[in-house]
From TrEMBL:
Belongs to the ARTD/PARP family. Keywords: ADP-ribosylation, Glycosyltransferase, NAD, Nucleotidyltransferase, Transferase. This is Poly [ADP-ribose] polymerase. It comes from Pygocentrus nattereri. It comes from the Eukaryota.
């Protein structure tokens, strides 16, 4: 899937040539993925740290003036962006009608809602796919499980080279849902001692991981949201039972990490100072503040066998 560069020339080329213009038409087959992308975008936008973590900021061409940007990273308007995001209808609701009719309904709510939804989908640089029940990791105790490959091909190639030399294992990485809007588009980065750091770096600079699920769940955050919808229609939608309507979501990634001497292990806290040595593999979402089994240890043979079984099945 091509990604959209934030340079204005690229944005206008995207709009003019129609690259990925049909992406939203396929939401019926990936409704939960689109729901997830919207939820991540919403969490980042509503964060008190949005000026830091809402990256990238959308580049969206004005539907009434193809020569201008309605959303411009150089002239940020979080309030206007919030209004458009609030007007994006639930993907579960969207899939009940034809795409043409859905677009008309969204355009009535806000002419920038549909262009923003297109941007949210097309700017995602990660390969993220909902796992069928038969290929899910049962010990994670959630039906919201995704295959998540967030590394660009070049990094994945470097990772595989390192894996041949040093081997690899699996560990969890927990981060609040507000951070994943950026992670899916920029990849996992070493945030230690930067403005992105949130929890400190007690064990030095690097990407923090743990083989123990409870530790990473602790970093996934827990936050209660008030209703932020701006119309009566959306408040009605919020009352219905659909995936990711909750404003209290926890998420954790299961990563593959290179077991070279660079990997620093401080008990159950692992620090990997080499970003190329960590690649996301799975992503798990829990609604309404629920979390999975706190006692999962990725180093247990039975857990490793199950992870490898799912990976082999998924790649075959």
């Amino acid at each position: 899937m091509p990604a959209v560069c934030t340079r204005e020339l690229c944005v206008f080329s995207f709009y003019t040539l129609g690259v990925m213009s049909g992406a939203v038409e396929d939401v019926a087959t990936g409704a939960e993925v689109v729901d997830l992308l919207v939820a991540m975008c919403r969490a980042a936008l509503e964060s008190s740290r949005k000026s830091i973590i809402f990256d990238p900021y959308p580049s969206v061409v004005d539907p009434f003036d193809p020569k201008a940007l309605a959303f411009n990273p150089k002239k940020r308007s979080y309030d206007r962006l919030q209004k458009a995001l609030d007007s994006i209808m639930s993907i579960r609701e969207i899939t009940q009608g034809s795409y043409v009719e859905i677009k008309k309904q969204m355009d009535k709510l806000d002419p920038l809602a549909h262009p923003l939804l297109q941007w949210i989908i097309s700017s995602n640089r990660s390969h993220i796919v909902k796992l069928p029940v038969s290929r899910q990791l049962k010990f994670m105790h959630t039906t919201h499980q995704f295959l998540l490959l967030s590394s660009p091909p070049a990094k994945e190639a470097r990772f595989r080279t390192a894996r041949k030399l040093y081997g690899s294992t699996f560990a969890f990485h927990g981060s609040h849902i507000e951070n994943w809007h950026s992670i899916l588009r920029n990849g996992l980065v070493n945030a230690s001692y930067t403005k992105l750091q949130l929890h400190g770096a007690a064990y030095g600079k690097g990407i923090y991981l743990s083989p123990i699920s409870s530790i990473s769940f602790g970093y996934s955050g827990r936050r209660n949201f008030a209703c932020g919808y701006m119309s009566g229609l959306h408040c009605v939608l919020k009352q219905t039972s659909r995936f990711l309507q909750s404003r209290n979501l926890n998420c954790v990634a299961l990563c593959e990490v290179i077991t070279s001497k660079d990997l620093q292990k401080h008990g159950n806290i692992w620090v990997c100072p080499v970003p190329d040595h960590v690649c996301t593999r799975f992503f798990f979402v829990y609604e309404d503040g629920q979390v999975g089994d706190a006692n999962i240890n990725t180093q247990e043979p039975r857990i490793q066998r199950e992870i490898l079984r799912v990976i082999v099945t998924q790649s075959s």
